[in-house]
Structure formats: C-alpha cells, structure tokens
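re: that chain from earlier
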Amino acid sequence: MQTFAYTTPTSVADAARAMTQEDAKLMAGGQTLLQTMKLGLIAPTAVIDISGIAELKGIKVAAGKLTIGAGTTHAAVASSKEVQTAIPALAELAGHIGDRQVRNRGTIGGSLANNDPAACYTAAVLGLGATVHTNKRTIDADAFFVGLYTTALADGELITAVSFPIPEKAGWQKFKQPASRFSLVGVFVSKGPAGVRVAVTGAGAGGVFRASTLEAKLTANWSAAALAGASVSAAGLNGDLHGSAEYRAALIPVLAARAAG
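^ sequence. v structure.
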C-alpha cells in the first residue's frame, strides 16, 4: 500500500477543510476504502478518518421523522430501540448487512456515499423517500443516486445525516449472495408520507432504482396478492455468474410481495 497523510478531524468543519487537499479521501468505517486501496484501485494522498466525529453519530425520532447520523454503524441501527419501533424493516435490514465485523465498522453514511449497486441501505433510503443531509445542503433520495458508484455529492461535500419519514407500513426482503452477503436482489417497500414506494437493489446495472409498475399495483391494493402475476422487464438489469438479468427480474416481484405481506 502506498504512503499517505492520515488525519483525524474532530468536527465536520475540520473534515471539510481537510477535504480541500488534492486526492484526499474520507474514511468512516473503512469497509470499502481500505479494500480498494489494497487492490491498488485508488491511491489517495491523504486519508481523512471521520470515525471519531461525535456530531456524525446518533439516532433520534422527532416530528414524524427518524434521523440517523452518517457515522452511525449498521450494528447501532439494528439494535436501536428507536429504529425498531419507528421503522422495524430498517432495523431488520441493518442487522443483516455483511457479517458482524462489517456491521460494527461500516456506517450508513459511508454505504450511501459509496453507492454500491448491491448495497442494502440504498434501497431503504430510496424506498422510504428519505432525505440525505450534507454539510452544505439536503438532497432528496430520488436525486441522490446518480449511477453506478456515483451520487449527487459534490467535491468537498460529506453526508452528515439521513432522515426517514416514518411510514405507515414498510418491508424488506433480500436474496443474498452467500459469500459476500450483498444483495443479488433486495427490495424495500413502503407506504407513508412519500406515497407507495418500491426500491430495488442488486438487480439494476446502474444501481438502485424504483419499480414503478409494482408501486402502482400496491397503491391500488397494499397486499402480497396485489403482486400475484406481476412482472418486471429484464431490460437494463444486471446479469452475472450469480444470476441472469431474467432471473433477477423474476425475483423482484416475488420479493416485493413478501415484503408487502
């Protein structure tokens, strides 16, 4: 691994200033950054470790919203009584990300900023119509995920928190790749202030997306039965050694029905 400067800012403002360094990279839990550095895919001149910033951590419920600090670990989300009460499906999702080590190191902000096409949190954020808060602005979920490993974050911008409107109903189903525990297909469904939403991860060649045809069916009748016989086009879906595009297309309505049921 190459040499690099290592800094540990204690505030968001300090982190933002450190990010002005050329080729600097943020590290929260390090679950993605360190691996890509080891593989030689990136070579930052500076690593800014934001894991110690207290203002990036924490969970609270207020005014019909659940807000989670960007530096909050998956394990903390999964075990939170506030999350389990407000959005049980989100706690369930967080509790099955990766393995125990990943859940105790990885963070919600790091996962969203990386925007892996098979990540779980992306489906929850899009499926609940959440808002991503940064040190500069707020970004609606529909505008945040731009493409493969790409988000709306600008240079010098870091995620500080994510706020989720508390839904009337929500569910999550994941068909995982056994070794990595990433989603071959994952579907998050919700009915709430943002309407009925169905978000799919693991299947889209460009990353997480909304399944509008399934949303229409669940809007008319929120039930597993409403999705009986429903289909999703395989066009534009991911196909690899773990499953063809057609296989993933067939899984989406099945998982959506289970999540809604």
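The chain is about 30% helix and 25% strand.
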